[in-house]
Write a structure and sequence with these properties.
heterodimer; A: about 260 residues; alpha/beta; Rossmann fold; 2 domains; 6-stranded mixed sheet; 4-stranded antiparallel sheet; 12 strands; globular; B: mainly alpha; ABC transporter involved in vitamin B12 uptake, BtuC
Chain lengths: ~260, ~350
Amino acid sequence: MSITLTDVQKDYNSGASKDTVQIGPVTTEIESGGITALVGPNGAGKSTILTMIGRLLDIDTGQITVAGHDVVSTPSKAIAKILSVLRQENHFVTRLTVRQLVGFGRFPHSGGRLTLGDERYISEAIDFLDLTELENRYLDQLSGGQRQRAYVAMVLAQQTDYVLLDEPLNNLDMQHAVQMMKQLRAAADELGRTIVIVLHDINFAAHYSDKILAMKHGQVVKHGTPAEIMQNHVLSEIFNTDVQVIDGPNGHLAVYY
Amino acid sequence: MTLEKQREVRELASPTRPVTAETRPPAPKRRRTGPLTGKKHIRNYVIAMVVLGALSIFFTVAIMSWNNPMPFGSDGYWMIAGMRRDSLLTIAVVALCHAMATIAFQTATNNRIITPGIMGFGSLYTAIQTGFVYVFGMAGVTMLVGVPQFFLQMIIMLILATALYTWLLSGKFSNIHIMLLVGVVIGGTLGSLSNFMQRMLTPSEFDVLTARLFGNISNARAEYLPYAIPIALAVTLVLWLWAPKLNVISLGKTTSMNLGLNHKRELIKLLMLVSILISMATALVGPMMFLGFLTAILAYQFADTYSHRLLFPMAFLFGYCILTGSYFILRHVWDAAGAVTIIVELIGGLVFLIFILRKGRL
């Protein structure tokens, strides 16, 4: 039971000129359990790979399976019960309360008609992300950090084994970024979810994830534990910049400025 | 025990005082999820629906019975009442089409400003009407009256819309903004074509044509109704059954895909239904750009919910009240059977502006 990618490729054509940006071919396996972080410089293809696994983006060639199900040929509705995906920008035209939003996470199971069981999952997801007091507030009355937590609560309420998150720490300050990572860690450890996450900060990735998948120029260049990745020459090569790894109070720290 | 008493007792409880049944805080609130967030929200929705329902009944009765020149009970009385009943049925069909279509369209395109009117339905209708008068003169207007012609106009508009939607949504663009842009450009092109033809008409031809180009209840003929009513009801039923899906689609493309919907396919199905409704309403009474926008925006404001099963009936009642109200004022108070659109846009626009300025958000 894992996420497997076989020769997955995506080409981005830039219209008139003949340059194409090619992502892949990528062949790798993301094991079940724990947090896997996707890191790499801008344009490396992290989000592309993540959204292709989440079947939000069409695959040009190759195959992706999640827990044995091909994400392209399996009905979207069935995939929605084993895999959930959250993108960076979420803007809704409708005005929703936190609880209503989280309730939508139950749609693949309930089809819109919420049962008592659904309500329990919704309450659990809300409590898990410390949104209990805010559950009847409208999303436009929340701060950025709280809103981000509400979105994550929605994908947790979906009760899928696999959770894909595209840069959930974007626009979060230190406090909220740490809080978010701790909650995701707890979701992996206590709820047994497999979390795949795109991160920009290598130190966050090293501290909170179990595996790091490093990408560059559309290719996977390194896939290993944080200890294997947190080395001067490895990081310098991945990020095209001089990186020095030092010992910090809570493990290795990458210094690049 | 009264609420005040309960509160008083609770305030008395402290770490040094024993916790008894009376001093224990109230049991946690039952946590439920629903489209209406609380008692106040439910009350507001019910009040709005009751007021709208009462208004629709009032206008219906008023239009049916006001100022009937024949003595009550005579044959002439019932003939006039029958004609008025057909007008009311036309209004109901048009209100239903515009309300359902606009909300479904805005949900599909994930916006609350643009209405299906932008896709060029109105311009195409104008172009067809103008083209006939241009080619056949005065006779052209009457050539477009009749059941086959009604269906012909509807089918032409349907083909345009379907071609546009499927081509633009399933092709390599796959982008709703490009679709809207192309729709606007087609609308503009057809509009200037009609404008050009109108300049070549004689004043009397132009006069006859103008009467057809304003949305007008009296454009509709009773013989269209046996076809229009079942079609409108059937599409409404489908949209009603799809309402849970529509709620999800209104969250946007990625969220609805994440929740297991085939977004592109749902969008095309939805836009087809929208085209059926709008092309039928347009073929029936002519273009009414503002009506759908107004009913939808008022329903969003007063219902304040994502649930389409709550939005649809309210939007329909708004549409029905606005149309019957304008029709009644025009026909029976001002005694001038002019174009309803003028009143809809005047009063509706004012209501909309006042409401937006008072509430401060869309």
